[in-house]
Amino acid sequence: MSITRSMMEIVREEMDRHGVKSLKRLKVRIGELTAVEPEALRFCFEAYVKGTPLEGAVLEIEDVPLMGWCAQCSAEFRMEYFLRACPECEGASVTKTTGHELDIVSMEAE
């Protein structure tokens, strides 16, 4: 719930800044490594907006998988089971490129 509260504080600040009163849609991006369960976030969002002027807003969640990049062969790949070696060349110089996101992507408001 604290993540939802923080996220909605940002949304309300942006709504105030732009003089809008009604939130229609909120799109967020959640990386696999954030430990944020999308359905739990959805539940908390619904509970947070219930009985407020934001009630009825739709939460869209984009799941971002854990991806990696190999410095040896430049391969990009889906990291599964936290593999440390590149599946293409078996190189050990692998960098996580996605999976840490917890972003507000966009909001639609009136």
Would you give an account of this structure?
The chain has a three-stranded mixed β-sheet with strand order 2-1-6, with helices on one face. Strands 4-3-5 form a three-stranded antiparallel β-sheet, with no helix packed on it. The chain contains two helices and six strands. By secondary structure, it is an alpha+beta fold. Helices cover 26% and strands 33% of the residues. It is elongated and about 55 Å long. The chain has a domain of 76 residues: hypothetical protein PF0899 fold, CATH 3.30.2320.50. The mean pLDDT is 92. A hairpin with a 5-residue loop joins β3 and β4.
Question: Helix and strand layout, with pairings?
Answer:
Layout: H1 2-18, E1 23-31, H2 38-49, E2 58-64, E3 67-70, E4 76-78, E5 94-98, E6 102-109
Parallel strand pairs: 1-2
Antiparallel strand pairs: 1-6, 3-4, 3-5
Helix pairs in contact: 1-2
Average pLDDT level: 92
Give me the count of strands.
6
What is the radius of gyration? 18 Å
Order of adjacent strands in the largest pleated sheet: 2-1-6
Note the overall shape.
Answer: elongated
State the distance separating the first and last CA atoms: 25 Å
Structural descriptors:
alpha+beta; hypothetical protein PF0899 fold; 3-stranded mixed β-sheet; 3-stranded antiparallel β-sheet; elongated
